[in-house]
Design brief:
Elements lengths: L1 H15 L2 E7 L5 H12 L2 E4 H10 L6 H9 L6 H15 L3 E5 L5 H10 L5 E9 L2 H13 L9 H24 L3 E5 L4 H14 L8
Parallel strand pairs: 1-3, 1-4, 2-3, 4-5
Helix pairs in contact: 2-9, 3-4, 3-5, 5-6
GO molecular function: ATP binding; nucleoside monophosphate kinase activity
EC number: 2.7.4.14
Pfam families: ADK
């Protein structure tokens, strides 16, 4: 009887955990744009790992600022302890229970760190993977940089490093989750609203309710 009650309590607590969707794709695949649509339609909080790191880099007195700047400029990945800490703080600060985590986990170290620090604090629903060719992604990023994105990595040299990191480090993570049946793939080469139609199919298929208008 006690064992059954414990199982029921564990199941209840698991249901109460914050729900997470990892959002992955190459630089310029449109992750941020699609996350803004999803947030409005499905009441998810959009947490961009890159934006959180950039904010921390700019924060006066940050002990990580210089290291983060160097890693971002060189297309390298920031230590997972730093990224997980920033994500967890942002989740707690939001007061919400559903999160899109954009651009994370980007390598095995990220994955292991998340499993070690956050897996018992959250419930992973699925991984949303935006597929887009390198040429289209490069064109988008360079256009974003030319339009004044203010990002130090929206240039050709940084992009080449970021793509190498994506292919060598992030694709194996997507393959890992694919083997677990957790990846929902979306072709991201169309215009944003067309891409979002496929995104909605993925979220609706997972039983996630839209916000009532």
């Amino acid at each position: 009887m006690l064992s059954r009650s414990f199982r029921h309590l564990s199941a209840y607590l698991y249901k109460m955990l914050p729900e997470v969707v990892f959002v992955l794709g190459a630089p310029g695949a449109g992750k941020g744009t699609q996350c803004s649509y999803i947030s409005k339609e499905y009441d998810f909080v959009h947490l961009s790992a890159g934006d959180l790191l950039r904010e921390e880099r700019q924060r006066p007195g940050s002990e990580y600022g210089e290291m983060i700047e160097e890693k971002i400029r060189n297309g390298e990945i920031v230590p997972v302890e730093v990224t997980c800490s920033l994500i967890h703080k942002a989740m707690q600060k939001s007061g919400k229970s559903r999160f899109l985590i954009d651009g994370f986990p980007r390598n095995k170290d990220n994955l292991d760190g998340w499993d070690r620090v956050m897996s018992d604090k959250t419930k992973l629903l699925f991984v949303l993977f935006f597929e887009c060719s390198r040429d289209i992604c490069t064109e988008r990023c360079l256009g974003r940089g030319a339009a004044g994105s203010g990002r130090s990595d929206d240039n050709l040299e940084s992009l080449q490093k970021r793509f190498n990191t994506y292919i060598n480090d992030t694709m194996p993570i997507i393959n890992h989750y694919d083997q677990l049946g957790l990846v929902k793939r979306v072709n991201a080469e169309s215009v944003p609203m067309e891409v979002f139609q496929d995104v909605k199919k993925a979220f609706d298929g997972a039983g996630l309710q839209r916000i009532a208008n």
